[in-house]
Amino acid sequence: MKLILTEEQEFLRDTARDFARERTPVTHFRSLRDNKDENLWDKDIWQEMVNLGWSGILIPEEFGGSDFGVAGISVILQECGKTLTPSPLFSTGVLGAYAISNFGTKEQKEKYLPKIVSGEITTALAVDESSHHDPSKTLFKAEQKASNFLLNGKKTFVIDGASADIFIVLARTSGNSGDLAGLTLFVVESSVDGIKKIKLDMADSRNYANIEFNNVECSNEDILGALESGGETVERILDIGRIAMSAEMLGNAESAFETTIEYLKQRKQFGVVIGTFQALQHRAAEMFCEIELTKSAVMAAIHGADENSNELQRLSSLAKTIAGETLNLISNEAIQMHGGIGVTDEYDLGFFIKRSRVAEQIFGSSTYHTERYANLSGF
Predict the structure, then answer these.
(1) Where residue 2 falls among pLDDT bands split at 50, 70, 90?
(2) pLDDT at 166 over 70
(3) Does the model's pTM come out above 0.90?
(4) Residue 346 has pLDDT above 60, yes or no
(5) Mean per-residue pLDDT for 190-208?
């Protein structure tokens, strides 16, 4: 398996890097937080990203996308992660685009994919129902009534749920908690009767919501994939999402590390640059090595996704585990090496440690994925 980018992917990465530095530096994220923006992402900036074609990276050309693969979207998220760029790119350009492109009916693809490409709609994946990620424990009910279904229940911590136009909802149509069998995915427009969005105030100042469904009516045409195949389908969608999130977390870690190294080169203590202290050099070397290991794990998972590897689940869990542990380490060390100023709001490092603690939990923590990796490996 190759662990390098193609020339086209490098060009896409460079474009994303320039965009993030020029249009969405960390000051952009800070202004959205301070102004208490309703969406916590800028609509004009999102439209610029759409115009660059990023929302259609995972969408086939026949629906207006570029079909540039998981590697394409991941290098963009990695660069955006370096400046904490807030946008619905992950929830829409990764989760929604991949889910509908790969599991939607012809009618669903024709209805939704061109609108995702044009930026007309955003999507959100509603899976979790508690603070612990585990799709098999879904209790959210979809009760069949003649040819329709009534959705009832609550989904928690839905990424970009407060602003999404379309929800992809995991529901139980049969079976019991703990079974992946008996689950079904539905595509539901957020404007229909019976849906209530409850916006969450999270540490990383991003767009999340709890979503309540009260007798929301859906038809067979709203099923994504096949009836009661949702367990297997959602795991595939989640694995792609975990890989893309790992790439973003890698970008977070790289930026925090670079900021810390620059500080070590400038800060003086008792007239001596602290970067000359051997103890700090050792800690910096450890951070560098962990970033390099994370790059390899993320790159392997990216190419595994694009090459339809039989090891995709293991590669996804490996990338998410290592990315989570690395970002945790580097965000902690960055704060430690900056001393007391590291936790003050005027310094950007505080944003990275807050983002770290939330991102680590998205679609499974390192503990969850270590256990998943072990189970998949037969241990």
Answers:
(1) low
(2) yes
(3) yes
(4) yes
(5) 96
Confidence of residue 3 (pLDDT cuts 50, 70, 90): low
Q: Could you give the CA distance from residue 247 to residue 241 in angstroms, rounded to a whole number?
A: 10
Q: What is the mean pLDDT of the chain?
A: 96
Task: In whole angstroms, give the CA distance from residue 90 to residue 2.
Answer: 25
Contact 65/117 with Cβ under 8 angstroms? yes
For 180, list phi and psi in degrees, rounded to 5: -80, -25
Q: Whole-angstrom Cα distance, residue 158 to residue 129?
A: 9
Average pLDDT value for residue range 70-76: 97
Dist CA 161 CA 366 (whole Å) = 24
The 3-state secondary structure of the chain, one letter per residue: CCCCCCHHHHHHHHHHHHHHHHHCCHHHHHHHHHCCCCCCCCHHHHHHHHHCCHHHCCCCHHHCCCCCHHHHHHHHHHHHHHCCCCCCHHHHHHHHHHHHHHHCCHHHHHHHHHHHHHCCCCEEEECCCCCCCCHHHCCCEEEEECCEEEEEEEEEEEECCCCCCEEEEEEECCCCCCCCCCEEEEEEECCCCCEEEEECCCCCCCCEEEEEEEEEEEEHHHEECCCCCHHHHHHHHHHHHHHHHHHHHHHHHHHHHHHHHHHHHHCEECCEEHHHCHHHHHHHHHHHHHHHHHHHHHHHHHHHHHCCCCCHHHHHHHHHHHHHHHHHHHHHHHHHHHHHHHHCCCCCHHHHHHHHHHHCCCCCCHHHHHHHHHHHCCC
Quick one: which of 156, 75, 365 has its CA closest to 242? 365
Report, as an integer, the average pLDDT of 130-134: 93
Sign of the Cα pseudo-torsion (370, 372, 378, 379, in order): positive
Label residue 200 exposed, middle or buried (CB < 10 Å: 0-12, 13-18, 19+): middle
**Short-list 133, 135, 119, CA closest to 55:** 119
Alpha-carbon span 69 to 61, nearest angstrom: 12
List residues bridging with 152 in a β-sheet. 141
